[in-house]
């Protein structure tokens, strides 16, 4: 198949367009992760006693694949993702349940909305 491009597009212009597209893709990736972290930061860890007068929102759970050697990072990432779920549902607190970690770390918890 012959890859023909318009005569008006030079190799320099083509590289320039590709670099712009790459820059946009990187920016979207970075800000997408940053936004997710901000949402997770609005949800606090809590105990059952701390949420006794709060409204239950939903169960949350998330998984992270970091492997047995990076268990701590896997737990951190799974909890962050679960907090993001809780934030999207309008929760302010999470009471953590079981954290399982093998090759895949799974964090489960209960999300609550508490008055501020």
Annotate the secondary structure layout.
Layout: H1 11-41, E1 44-45, E2 55-65, H2 71-88, E3 93-101, E4 104-113
Parallel strand pairs: 1-3
Antiparallel strand pairs: 2-4, 3-4
Q: Could you characterize what this model shows?
A:
With 116 residues, this protein is an alpha+beta fold. It has a domain at 42-113: Translation Initiation Factor IF3 (2-Layer Sandwich), CATH 3.30.110.70. 42% of the residues lie in helices and 28% in strands. It is built from two helices and four strands. The chain has a four-stranded mixed sheet with strand order 1-3-4-2. Helix 1 crosses helix 2 (71-88). The protein is elongated, with a radius of gyration of 21 Å. The N and C termini lie far apart (64 Å). Residues 27-37 have low confidence and may be disordered.
Rounded average pLDDT? 78
Principal-axis shape = elongated
How large, in whole angstroms, is the Cα Rg? 21 Å
Q: Could you name the CATH topology of one domain?
A: Translation Initiation Factor IF3
């Amino acid at each position: 198949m012959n890859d023909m491009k318009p005569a008006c597009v030079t190799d320099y212009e083509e590289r320039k367009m590709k670099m712009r597209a790459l820059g946009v893709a990187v920016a979207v990736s970075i800000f997408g992760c940053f936004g997710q972290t901000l949402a997770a930061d609005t949800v606090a860890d809590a105990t059952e006693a701390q949420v006794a007068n709060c409204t239950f929102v939903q169960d949350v759970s998330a998984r992270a694949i970091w492997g047995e050697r990076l268990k701590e990072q896997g737990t951190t990432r799974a909890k962050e993702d679960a907090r993001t779920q809780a934030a999207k549902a309008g929760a302010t607190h999470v009471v953590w349940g079981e954290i399982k970690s093998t090759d895949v770390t799974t964090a489960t918890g209960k999300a609550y909305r508490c008055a501020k």
